[in-house]
Design brief:
InterPro entries: Cupin_1, RmlC-like_jellyroll, RmlC_Cupin_sf, Seed_Storage-Functional. Pfam families: Cupin_1. It comes from Eucalyptus grandis. This is Cupin type-1 domain-containing protein. Keywords: Signal. The chain has 292 residues and is mostly beta strands. The chain folds into two domains: 138 residues, Sandwich (Jelly Rolls), CATH 2.60.120; 121 residues, Sandwich (Jelly Rolls), CATH 2.60.120. Helices cover 7% and strands 40% of the residues. The chain contains two helices and 17 strands. The strands form three sheets. Strands 11, 12, 13, 14, 15, 16 and 17 form a seven-stranded antiparallel beta sheet that branches. Strands 1-8-3-6-10 form a five-stranded antiparallel beta sheet, with no helix packed on it. Strands 5-4-7-2-9 form a five-stranded antiparallel beta sheet, covered by helices on one side. Helix 1 crosses helix 2. The radius of gyration is 20 Å and the shape is globular.
Length: 292
Amino acid sequence: MDRSPGCGSSNSDWESGSLPGRSFFYHGNVKMTRLITLFFAGIILPESEKVIAIKEGDGIALPFDVVTWWYNKDDTALLVVLLLGYTLKAHKAGQFTDFFLTGSNGIFTGFTTEFMLVGSQPGSGIMKVDAGFKMPELKKGHQNGMVLNCEEASLEVDIKNGGRVVVGLGANLIRLDGSTMCSPGFSCDSVLQVTYIVSGGGCAQVVGINGKRVLESTVKAGNLFIVPRFFVVSKIADLDGMSWFSIITTPKTSVWKALSLEVLQASFNVPPDMEKAFSSKRMDSEIFFPPN
């Protein structure tokens, strides 16, 4: 999604940022990073989380559209991040498409309380965690094949096919029972997501990459609406249910199932019992949430 300085493509870019001590950063789209000093990072692949230690000179090649979190455990050191990659498929070509799952500008803040109840985390992007808060432990072997230290690697090392995640997309006919909610989802590979309401009706909401709601509408049979890439859409059926034809990502690649409990607790700024309630929902359900 992004690129290094000096490349000739107009559809690529680079960006840098910093992370103060004891800070936590949640990021939606990163392609490659170079990090200064020693910190922790979490990389959320489909239904799995890799927790790795990173230090000065490390380069990490990441698949397109993965979710990452970065943690600076040092009170004084500053984390400097350089993002590199290709932006042809970005929401705006030539610019990074960054979005956050939580915080005051997270993608869930744009939904009304009928869809989402989010408001405990006032932070935006970079959030301070309390002293003594325990983040996920490092996992042995997770760095293998993912991290290359630019200052320690020998010159003859040749890194090929760093890896990519191919998310399966297909045409789907979705049927919701009465008063059931369809989990928020987005398309990253196709330019547009087209949805046609076949029968029934309900409510649809769409949230943009800045966390602002861009559409809230009652939908019924015969309606058709189009959602741009990276925009998040969710629907709730009326009492009689709702069916629609659409192209969506597979429901079994939810990053919520892979995230550590500690990361979720810090991201949403909620006590452990609230996080456990959220976790039970994300583990028990696929993409449909029946009424309680």
